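quick one
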Amino acid sequence: MSADTPADTEGKDFIRTRIEEDRAAGKLSSGVVTRFPPEPNGYLHIGHAKSICLNFGVAEEYGGTTFLRFDDTNPIKESEEYVRAIASDVEWLGFKWATLTHASDYFEELYKFAVDLISNDKAYVCSLTAEEIRAQRGTLTEPGVESPYRNRPVEESLDLFQKMRAGEFGDGEHVLRAKIDMSSPNINMRDPVLYRIRHISHQRTGDDWCIYPMYDFTHCICDALEGITHSLCTLEFEDHRPLYDWVLDNSNVNFHPPQIEFSRLGLEYTVMSKRLLNRLVDEGLVEGWDDARMPTIAGLRRRGVTPAAIRDFCARVGVTKQDNRIEMNLLEFCIRRDLEAKSPRGMGVLHPLLLTITNWDGGEVDMTGPWHAQNESLGTRTLPFGGSLYIEQEDFSLDPPKKWRRLAPGEMVRLRYGYIVRCDEVIQDDEGNVIELKCTYFPDSRSGEDTSGLKPNGVIHWVSAPSAVPAEIRVYNRLFRVPDPSAESFLDDINPDSLEVLEGYVEPAIADSPEMRFQFERTGYFCKDPEAPGVYNKTVSLREGF
Ligand code: ATP
Ligand code: MG
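structure w/ magnesium ion:
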């Protein structure tokens, strides 16, 4: 794209507007370059999806490229398992990175940049303890106190830094600090720590290093080395931007990317931080990172949510500078919207009630139903029908309200794609629970060729008992009882009824189909659990609201 293309900013968010302007100003001669830089300390959540859609999205739109860069500078919390899970989630969402890198690929270069800072009297080895450094940082209203090591001779700092690297000191004995301004109104600029000693193996570099660079030093240099044209991050880094710029201004890099902040995505009734999600996993409150109640990409996938629905959701949320918690209804709307057109329909009974047809002779016969009444391309399926069926408990009422559209004593309903039946007798157990309905069917009422002239109350779903396939049906409710669980007390707000496990049945064509996702007629969207055969996860209800 040529530099004289005028900026087309109409209807664009502020980041795309910025890119358009940079392009019009001729600043992007070799295209947009972005990066998605997760720390491999957990699985990705839907908040990360927003960042992924933004970073990969703008690169796609402007003919650029995106790095997937693992920000792996804190080996205590990081692992290869997380690296693999993150990469596969990004792919599953439908994005391709041009290059996969790790911050640890640059450890040697970062070390050299640090040595340069020391040589130029822009950094020094400080031998205060972590507590002392914290105590001397000052507050928003009071300046910090300069470290007694701040004016240590350059040669001494160089020597100590080299010895820190060589493993001559224990954890916490020294740190490397930038020499900026202890009275800066921005606390991040008060001689921030650039390197610390950690005698711990790193998942990629093993024991090669016992000093590890801090995020604020690492991130900007990696961005510069990779030629990132727009370093997009969330708003909490706004106060770090002066430090991002300071490090690059004081380092001998060829390129100085702009850091641009946007708001974090929050979602109602859940928490959105790997640290908090990790606690749910560790404390056994969910089955794992991919528990279908988790807001993780892996959890949403397991629940049956499609990549297209997540991308649509991120697009609708948009990119702004206002932090916000989005309503769950918007996510569910996007999920339904995507599944509506493409998922086959079938019948599944969640709370089975036996219905026996007393005038039925013989065994099962094959009926036919379309997989999707509005989408013929999905074809039809065979549907066994017979004298012994399961219907949904809630489709029968002993004492129906007015205008009851379902089954009741003496009343008629149509069994979808089958026949009209009338309930003649209700069998109850000793406690009064309805356990079986005895019905009559009308042979001339077969669906599609009905000549009976009967007027049933409504149409209900069912499965034929002999060929019904038992299914464990997992119905998920919100993981939290409150829309805005807080980081401090989120464990108190867990919804104890977030999972309901039902012993139901599905029609055989569903169980036999290679498809994973279905609409169970009248009930909701369900997905076969990819890990557990015979288990169906409820993805979303058919209509809004719990
Ligand atoms: P977490 O607290 O979940 O670990 P993080 O910001 O520490 O979040 P990173 O792995 O550092 O997680 O994030 C990688 C990228 O994803 C960063 O650029 C970060 O700004 C972005 N990101 C993380 N959470 C969100 C969110 N909720 N909404 C939008 N972007 C996010
Ligand atoms: Mg982080």
